[in-house]
From TrEMBL:
Site, Lowers pKa of active site Tyr: residue positions: K80
Cited InterPro entries: AKR (IPR020471), Aldo/ket_reductase_CS (IPR018170), NAD(P)_OxRdtase_dom_sf (IPR036812), NADP_OxRdtase_dom (IPR023210)
Domain NADP-dependent oxidoreductase: start-end pairs: 21-263
GO molecular function: oxidoreductase activity, acting on the CH-OH group of donors, NAD or NADP as acceptor
Record: residues binding substrate: H113
Family: Belongs to the aldo/keto reductase family.
Coiled-coil spans in chain: none
Keywords, sorted A to Z: NADP, Oxidoreductase
Active site positions: Y55 (proton donor)
Protein's name according to its UniProt entry: Aldo/keto reductase
Length: 290
């Protein structure tokens, strides 16, 4: 799915409009740095801020939102439910805690962070919270297609978003097509593969960027949004925040898109979400910080 060079948002399956680019705050562990980064991002033009209970920085994000001069209704805030809080009642409590930390009356998207634990009970709690107006859109994260379709088949509300690892080395094309056929949007985390496989010096991405005067990061984000995939790149540096946001004045051509498609290695740059040892660790309530 391509998107025109000036289109900066997508419409989810429930009619909610979601920005195509946002700021991810994973691994922003210093509260002051996180707060200032979010403020800088909002000043730069970012409107989507993506956090999670497991990141431990919802308070810092909330402080930045409160100090920002941008009206709340113009911002798009995502947070996520961790494994240790799955189940109907636990989810209600965890969501209330996240809302308190964020100092908000509602969030725009609430995601189940992993397909582990009683996420069926969690989904029903999220359906109720959505109906109460406390969540504008509910979704999932790191659900492989078979887990996503199973959840979809047995519940009332179809997930709006499935946040997945997607980058040039793990392109998830078939997964995207399958989910979009079910009206579920893919959103990319780790768009830069966290620098793995010499990402920032990749020759193909560097050469594609030269005629446009764009960096490897900008080419990658442009490639993703042209596929209709929202992105949430993380940076704590003002100049990089500005660079990442500046992807709307060029458009990759078909040759560029084909060249990038050849970089796909077809596997995660981090870990296998189907690995029993990974699931065991999550079941012990410990987030993985790679």
């Amino acid at each position: 799915m391509n998107t025109s060079s000036d289109k900066r948002s997508i419409v989810l399956n429930n009619g909610v409009e979601m920005p195509l680019i946002g700021l991810g705050v994973f691994q922003m562990n210093d509260p002051r740095e996180c707060e200032q980064t979010v403020l800088t991002a909002i000043e730069t033009g970012y409107r989507l801020i993506d956090t999670a209970a497991a990141y431990g920085n919802e308070v810092a994000v909330g402080n930045a939102i409160r100090k920002s001069s941008v009206p709340r209704e113009e911002l798009f805030i995502t947070t996520k439910l961790w494994v240790s809080d799955t189940g109907y009642e636990n989810t209600k409590k965890a969501f209330a805690n996240s809302l308190k930390k964020l100092q908000l009356e509602y969030v725009d998207v609430y995601l189940i962070h992993q397909a582990v634990g009683d996420y069926y009970g969690s989904w029903r709690a999220m359906e109720d919270l959505h109906k109460e107006g406390k969540i504008r859109a509910i979704g999932i994260s790191n659900f492989y297609p078979e887990r996503a379709i199973d959840l979809l088949a047995h519940n009332e509300i179809v997930p709006t978003v499935n946040q997945l690892e997607v980058h040039p080395f793990y392109q998830r094309v078939k997964t995207q097509h399958y989910l979009e056929d079910k009206q579920v949007r893919v959103q990319s985390w780790a768009s830069f593969a966290e620098g793995r496989n010499h990402f920032f010096t990749n020759e193909t991405l560097s050469e594609i960027g030269k005629p446009y005067g764009k960096s490897v990061a900008q080419v990658t984000l442009r490639w993703l949004v042209q596929r209709g995939i929202p992105v949430i790149p993380k940076s704590v540096h003002r100049e990089r925040l500005i660079e990442n946001f500046n992807i709307w004045d060029f458009e990759l051509n078909e040759t560029d898109m084909t060249s990038i498609s050849r970089l796909d290695l077809g596997k995660s740059a981090f870990f296998n979400h189907r690995d029993p040892e990974i699931i065991k660790r999550w079941a012990q309530r410990r987030p993985i910080h790679y």
